[in-house]
Amino acid sequence: MKPQSTLEHHADVVIIGFGAAGGCAAIAAHDAGVKTIILEKQPEARHYSNSRMSGGGFHSPSPDGDFESLKAYAKAMFSGENLPHKLEGEQPEFSDALAEAWATYAPQNAAFMRGLDPQFKTFSSAGAAFPEFPGADRSGYACLRSTYIGAEYDAGKIGSTKDAAKSQKESGEAFHACLLTGVQSRNIPIHYETAAQSLRVNDEGVVTGVEAVRDGQRIIYHARRAIILTCGGYEYNLRMRKAFLDGPGKEGWAFYGTPANTGDGIRMALKIGAALSKVGSVAGRVICAIPERRLGLKIGLNTSSVGKPNEIVVDNLGRRYAAERRITKDPSRYIFYNEALQFDTVTLTYPRIPSWMIFDSTLLASGPLVGTAAAAYNDIDWDKGNLNALRNGWILQGATIAGLAAKIRKHPDNRELMNAEALTQQVETWNRYCAAGDDPDFDAEPNTMGPVIKPPFFAIPLYPGGPNTKGGLRSNARREVLDWDDQPIPRLYTAGEISSVFQFVYQGGGNLAECIVFGRIAGANAAAETPLMHTHCQQSENVRAIGNF
Fold first, then answer.
1. Which of residues 447, 467, 487 is at a domain's end?
2. Which domain covers residue 455, as residue numbers?
3. Residue 108: enclosing H or E segment and its boundaries?
4. Cβ(145)–Cβ(522) under 8 Å?
5. Are 137 and 86 within one domain?
């Protein structure tokens, strides 16, 4: 069989990965007057990025907020350097410039999105999640939700709108539809089913393009100005999970984001000398995982029912270890996975992997226990009454708490650790606390307290995980990818989860917000690079970088 000839494409800026960061970077580069191409390895018909699968929330502080206060608040989230109790900053070399960029551009986020599609709507959902941080009170901080319907909604309760008309889309679907409208209205080419394989570098170490594959055919994309990596984290790369994440990398984690996030950009950039930063960081909590596998890994599901009345969360031995609402409440929900990773130095075990959600028939009957929208993206049929989950054995059931403990003990991941007497006593203690309206052990919020009392009883295993990893490529405020000497790799930029700026703590909606802010910055700065050579590609004589970022 005669080998296929190599295809070649030429552009000024080539963007790898079409999520929120890639879309915003493409729009910024295009609007700067340069030819731009987006590569996306998923097929168009099943293009489900983490941005599309998200709750559609993003930060957009008030333009009337105090600039220095907003900068201080951002710096505390990104690095923690300006917190008196912090031992050291996470990224002291760049934290000031990153915070400056955020304070400059984040207040434009809502206007930028509405500018892509006037039909796009938002509503306010939260303010500053860290009210004790410097600048929180005067920053004008605000988090918004995305919608085309216009009505407010609970992101944890709405069903999937992935197949709905644009006018009926909500949550991440609405955000993605708005972004796609902005890209398509500019006629920016999106090359779907095109998987980037390796970066092309010349003898001077300058990135000049990328090699990709589509339908088995090799394609070379020449970038006269720059490459931008916006292809997400490494949730579904088993080797990277084992290398970067604490705890058991194969059986101890679960994610519910896109399976396209396999660390491709990290792998390609490492091969040409890129450095890493906070690579073990995750936007995560503890979530339900079902035995079905995707790319060899458990499928996770957003478990919004944790922290509601009529349930508790215990470790493998049947012991509570935190107020349940902390697992699902912003901002602790995005860092709670650290508590699930506790390692017992005596028994040499992870007693909280998995943890167990113990609940009664009252909660089971109250509605879906997991986010059905996220389940739909993963082709999981989790109905509103939880009946399929029961039939499939994803939910364990016992007539008594002791009987439920016996079922848990037989679960392969429990390793026969569950103690029926301990679990029974824990439930009885919890029920007494509920009757008294006070939790002296972990100070649970009174409105979250409801007894586990109505049989039969149920359990779901919970694993560290969530929507996405956050650590990855080290980069500066201009979003240049850096080597291990903190020198920029020429003409290589990045934005989004692959190089998240949230390296200390995270507030819900931050992922999409940083994609807008730093995607735009990466796109504009990439477009401002001097062309490597003169070709037939369209170019602008007056391309300008954004500020000093």
1. 467
2. 284-467
3. none
4. no
5. yes
pLDDT in tens, 163-221: 899 999 999 999 999 999 999 999 999 999 999 999 999 999 999 999 999 999 999 99
Q: According to the per-residue pLDDT averaged within each range, which of 161-175, 427-441, 520-534 is highest? A: 427-441
Asked whether 23 and 179 are in contact (CB, 8 A), the reply is yes
Residue 73 belongs to domain with CATH number:
3.50.50.60
Q: Both 397 and 434 in a single domain? A: yes
Instruction: Report the domain count for the chain.
Output: 2
CB neighbour class for 95 (10 Å; exposed up to 12, middle 13-18, buried from 19): buried
Q: Does residue 238 belong to any structural domain of this protein?
A: no
Residues 462 and 499 in one domain: no
Type of residue numbered 386:
N
Residue type present at position 367? G
Is pLDDT of 525 > 80?
yes
Same domain, 350 and 496: no
Q: Which residue has the higher pLDDT, 196 or 157?
A: 196
User: Is residue 156 pLDDT above 70, yes or no?
Assistant: no
For residues 486 and 383, membership in a common domain is answered with no
Query: Can you spell out the DSSP letters for 502-539?
Result: --S---TTHHHHHHHHHHHHHHHHHHTSPPSS--SS--
Question: How confident is the model at residue 150, as a pLDDT?
Answer: 84
- Within this chain, do residues 333 and 425 fall inside the same structural domain, yes or no? yes
**Mean pLDDT value across residues 426-451:** 98
Q: What is the pLDDT of residues 228-277, one digit of tens each?
A: 999 999 999 999 999 999 998 888 999 999 999 999 999 999 999 999 99
Q: Which residues of 190-221 are buried (b: 16+ CB within 10 A; e: fewer)?
A: bbbbbbbeebbbeeeeebbbbebeeeeeebeb
Q: How far is CA 449 from the centre of its chain?
A: 29
Whether 332 is covered by a domain: the verdict is yes
CA distance 527 to 545: 7
Span 14-58, pLDDT tens digits: 999 999 999 999 999 999 999 999 999 999 999 999 999 999 999
DSSP conformational letter for 130: -
In this structure, are 149 and 169 located in the same domain? yes
Q: Are residues 445 and 504 in the same domain?
A: no
* 380, part of any domain: yes
- Tell me the pairing of strands 297-301 and 282-294: antiparallel
DSSP 366-432: TS-SS-HHHHHHTT----TT-HHHHHTTSSEEESSHHHHHHHHHHSTTTTT---HHHHHHHHHHHHH
Judge whether 426 and 418 are in contact, CB under 8 Å.
Answer: no
CATH number of the domain at 448, please. 3.90.700.10
Whether 341 is covered by a domain: the verdict is yes
Asked whether 227 and 207 are in contact (CB, 8 A), the reply is yes
